[in-house]
DNA sequence: CCGGTGAAGGTCAGAATAAGTCAAAGGATC
DNA sequence: GATCCTTTGACTTATTCTGACCTTCACCGG
């Protein structure tokens, strides 16, 4: 225990985090090849670091492009999901959701103070609108997907709005 | 925006956008040969830039003519943003959406200042996450639904936030 | 007229560049 | 020694850039 000697992946993570701290706007751009050279490893190691450490759950979004002028960009999101119920949302929603279950989930979230009454109505409206022409199982699958997506959006946007004040 | 541009195609795109911004009536006319000379590249590079960056999805129409007195004209198309969020979103999204189309739609909305860079990435991430294990048509349908739902949420919440101030 | 000619722009496929994927091997931890 | 995390490299995919070849058009000489 104590100070475990960090491995390569940890060093690369540290490096990227330092860059992010220094960067204006909480975003950085790197070349995969260059970074791999700097750390004397194969390029795919960079992908490993990014996919294990710079995830949405940890508050990052990553964007990349191949070919000439290619890059990897890492953005810090406003959303820190360890303090915000992202995982929680995923755990309550499930893969298949009936209209009734949707109501229950939203009720719980409102009860917990995560969303308010207006959000509840808004979400219910959107989910219903987007699943209205579907029946049975496919409706439930779509509802689940949309519910998760909408909740994720709402939570991150809310947070942004709060910060803006 | 500090968009760092790393390749020729991006430079040419930027140049054309600047011209469009300056132009009265949101339209410009260029000579392919001249532009290629200016950027020291083959003429077909211009076609590449136009066909990848100035698409209908991104809000442009392009018209050209060969032969003596030939030209390429680029027009910016307009989008009515004053309508209700739902109607607006529906007019942009459609029933079936490829990943590429989603990218273009979000790009255009960002271009119009309706969403910002982070929204763009966030939404792309959410939609991809929710459609990642699907293939072909069903993926496109789900993408369309989720994209509509997420955009509608975002726009409604945004409005609320503004009202609250 | 009318067919030729040169001046545009268009198409397509291949090379070059850079990132992504995946599975298997290697280590650490319990 | 079982399991989980890391590291590697062979293979895949995406994007850009180029050049050879094609099409369209105005104009000109006969």
Which characteristics define this entry?
59% helix; 3 strands; mainly alpha; three-stranded antiparallel sheet; 2 domains; homodimer; Phenylalanyl-tRNA Synthetase, Chain B, domain 1; 165 residues; DNA-binding
Give a brief rundown of this model.
The first copy, chain A, has 165 residues and is mainly alpha-helical. Helices cover 59% and strands 10% of the residues of chain A.
Q: What does this 3D model show about the protein?
A:
The structure is a homodimer of 165-residue chains. Chain A folds into two domains: 8-76, Transcriptional regulator CtsR, winged HTH domain (Phenylalanyl-tRNA Synthetase, Chain B, domain 1), CATH 3.30.56; 86-163. Chain A is built from seven helices and three strands. Chain A has helices spanning 8-22, 32-38, 43-53, 86-93, 99-111, 117-131, 136-163; strands at residues 27-30, 60-65, 71-76. Chain A has 165 residues and is mainly alpha-helical. In chain A, strand 2 and strand 3 (71-76) form a beta hairpin. The mean pLDDT of chain A is 86. In chain A, strands 1-3-2 form a three-stranded antiparallel β-sheet. Chains A and B meet through helix 6 and helix 7 of A and helix 1, helix 6 and helix 7 of B. The structure holds a DNA duplex (30 and 30 nucleotides).
């Amino acid at each position: 225990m104590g100070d475990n000697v960090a491995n390569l992946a940890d060093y690369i993570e540290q490096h990227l985090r330092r860059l992010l701290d220094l960067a204006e706007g909480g975003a950085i751009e790197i070349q995969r090849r260059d970074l791999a050279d700097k750390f004397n490893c194969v390029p795919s190691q960079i992908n490993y670091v990014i996919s294990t450490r710079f995830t949405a759950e940890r508050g990052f979004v990553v964007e990349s492009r191949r070919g000439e002028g290619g890059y990897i960009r890492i953005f810090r999101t406003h959303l820190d999901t360890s303090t915000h119920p992202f995982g929680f949302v995923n755990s309550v929603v499930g893969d298949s959701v009936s209209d009734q279950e949707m109501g229950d989930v939203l009720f719980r979230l409102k009860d917990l103070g995560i969303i308010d009454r207006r959000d509840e109505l808004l979400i219910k409206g959107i989910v219903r609108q987007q699943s209205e022409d579907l029946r049975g199982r496919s409706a439930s699958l779509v509802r689940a997907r949309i519910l998760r997506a909408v909740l994720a959006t709402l939570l991150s946007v809310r947070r942004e709005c709060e910060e803006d004040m």
